[in-house]
Amino acid sequence: MAAVDILLGLQWGDEGKGKIVDFLAPKYDVVARFQGGPNAGHTLEFDGHKHVLHQIPSGIFHEGILNVIGNGVVLDPITFKKEIEELAPFNLDLKRHLVISNKAQMIIPTHRMLDKAYEIAKGDKKIGSTLRGIGPTYQDKAARKGLRIGDVNEPDFDDRYKQLRDFHLEILARYDFEADLEEEERLFFEAVEMIREFDILSTEYLINQALVEGKSVLAEGAQGSLLDVDFGSYPYVTSSNTIAAGACTGLGVAPNKIGEVYGIFKAYCTRVGSGPFPTELHDASGEELRKIGNEFGATTGRPRRCGWLDLPALRYTVMLNGVTQLFMMKADVLEDIDEIKIAHSYLKNNELTDELPLYLDNGEFSLSFDSFKGWGGTKATEFDQLPEGLHSYIKYIESKVSAPINLVSLGPDRTQTIMKGDIVAQ
Ligand code: IMP
């Protein structure tokens, strides 16, 4: 029987997952999102087009692939409708190639309002949320109050919606927050009408049946492992399990059905929003990385914080996810940097420790770095042709992290992707 391979980010999101899913998609029959929602922005570039997907799986541009929005996702109908409309010029047969889990939770307009109200109330302790309503929607899921996508076809959907909305409005009344709901609700019900035209299914059956039939499934993670609600830099995290285990609960597949786990990381580190970032650069080198790497959020446009690669954090997320192959992104950004650094260890009371502390910003530890020199530009199309300096950088990381780097990305386009052999087991 075939397996579900998982592709996920090992840092704080924005590792370049969209590009790689799009690149790998032709090898798969099904591509499925298992957590997160419109807080994600997966950027795909091909044939001179740049496209950002928020909720729709990144396999959508390939013929013959079924794209699944799984039960672990929180779906915003309004954003979904916009995304569908933006895909119109590509003439994709979306109703045939995209299905939605009847158990995916629904983001309603007041979830977004609550997200804003909570963030404002947190003052300088704010999470830096994307304000897309993610946290409040997962909160309602756990509180067993949420609406699910399958509810749109229930006869009392409007009443259930109103009940949840009124519950939210009562909470909002306690905050200093003006809610203009009329226009939002008009858009919401228009979008719900459009969602009804899609196949809304128990996608867990569909995915498990696909496996029985020998079809290959790629689970597409969103955000990154350091934003995981359990293992990330809590409370500065998102509200879902972004690690590999989330693919099991977010799609309804058993752990013994998981095959490869592709872990994506940038050759350096970035983070958007608040929260600790031990290797962050507050000087001109951070600015240089942001400029060369064009490090601005795909969803919110916010400048991303930049810093050096953090190996203890990478070892941690490789362990949590059971990563079988590493894919290193944006190596080209470092090629002309005079001194590149990598944090190889954390020191606590001057002693080396391999364990990440409970709070990454508690001031009780420092970092130890090694230095590398930029390797200059490359037009390599094969792994063996990569410059010697880049090979050393790769070998160094592999020697410290127990997984091979089998893919290196040297630019945003599909064509700027160098593989070491055939990474997908068929
Ligand atoms: P939320 O998921 O919108 O509540 O945001 C929580 C934290 O996760 C904030 O620091 C966001 O900036 C961050 N975050 C959420 N989604 C993404 C993403 O797709 N890429 C990078 N950071 C994200």
Structure in words:
With 426 residues, the chain is of the alpha/beta class. Helix 4 packs across helix 5 and helix 4 packs parallel to helix 6 (157-172). The radius of gyration is 21 Å and the shape is globular. The strands form five sheets. A ten-stranded mixed β-sheet has the order 9-7-5-2-10-1-11-15-19-20, sandwiched between helices. Strands 14, 16, 17 and 18 form a four-stranded mixed β-sheet that branches. It is 29% helix and 21% strand. The structure holds inosinic acid. Inosinic acid binds next to helix 5.
Quick structural overview:
By secondary structure, this protein is of the alpha/beta class. It is built from twelve helices and 20 strands. The protein has a ten-stranded mixed β-sheet, sandwiched between helices.
Global shape = globular
How would you state the average pLDDT, rounded?
94
Q: Which segments are poorly predicted (pLDDT under 50) over 5 or more consecutive residues?
A: none
Radius of gyration, whole Å:
21 Å
Q: Compounds present? A: inosinic acid
Q: Strand sequence of the main sheet, in spatial order?
A: 9-7-5-2-10-1-11-15-19-20
Distance between the termini: 12 Å
Number of strands: 20
Question: In which range does the helix fraction lie?
Answer: 25-40%
Residue fraction in strands: 15-25%
Largest sheet: 10 strands, mixed
The number of helices is 12
Q: Provide the structure class.
A: alpha/beta
